[in-house]
Amino acid sequence: MSNGTEVINLDYWAAFHAQNVVKLSDNIGTTVTKTMGVLQEHGVYACFLYLYAKEKETCHGVISEMLDLLYHIGYCWEENNKPVAVQDVLNFVNESVSGGSLERLLFAKQTLEQMLIYVRYGAKAIEKTTAQNATDEAEIPDDADSSTATGIELIQEKGS
């Protein structure tokens, strides 16, 4: 662009970070569904609080990806030091995301929602393909199994 502004592909970054979250755990779908509910009902800050309070096993990975998404869409932290400690993350969300204009807050909320939606669909897709692969493998006869007869053997047996 000629005026020096950079266009951010929000969908790309939401999908990119969603894929990283899906890789974290086999049962991430439930965590993300609950997190998205808190985000939609109570807001961005409450979403981070919920993850720290209720989802101890997967919270750090999900929060890390959410912070990285916020960074990629323009919510930068001081001196390029990503907040890691709980209080630092909550302060960052409160001051940099929630403390700005209402427009910026709603922008962050909408983008985080998009990422979490992609995580839900990604987790469901993996569950389905894993279940389908298990079903397919169970249905495939083992070639070394001597109990299966070929068409020629069946004809020969019928003729005897």
Give a structural overview.
It is a single chain. Mean pLDDT is 82; it is low at 146-150. This protein is elongated. The longest helix has 38 residues, at 102-139. The protein is mainly alpha-helical. It has helices spanning 10-22, 28-42, 44-54, 59-72, 86-98, 102-139, 151-159. The protein is built from seven helices and no strands. 21% of the residues are buried. It is 71% helix and 0% strand. It has a single domain (10-140), classed as Orthogonal Bundle (Peroxidase, domain 1).
Please compute the radius of gyration using only Cα atoms: 24 Å
The parts where pLDDT drops under 50 for at least 5 residues are 146-150
Number of helical runs? 7
What is the total number of structural domains? 1
N-to-C CA distance:
82 Å
Quaternary state reads: single chain
Helix amount: over 70%
CATH topology: Peroxidase, domain 1
CATH architecture: Orthogonal Bundle
Give me the count of strands. Answer: 0
- Sheet with the most strands? none
Structural class: mainly alpha
Q: What's the CATH C level? A: Mainly Alpha
Order of helices and strands: HHHHHHH
Proportion of strand residues = under 5%
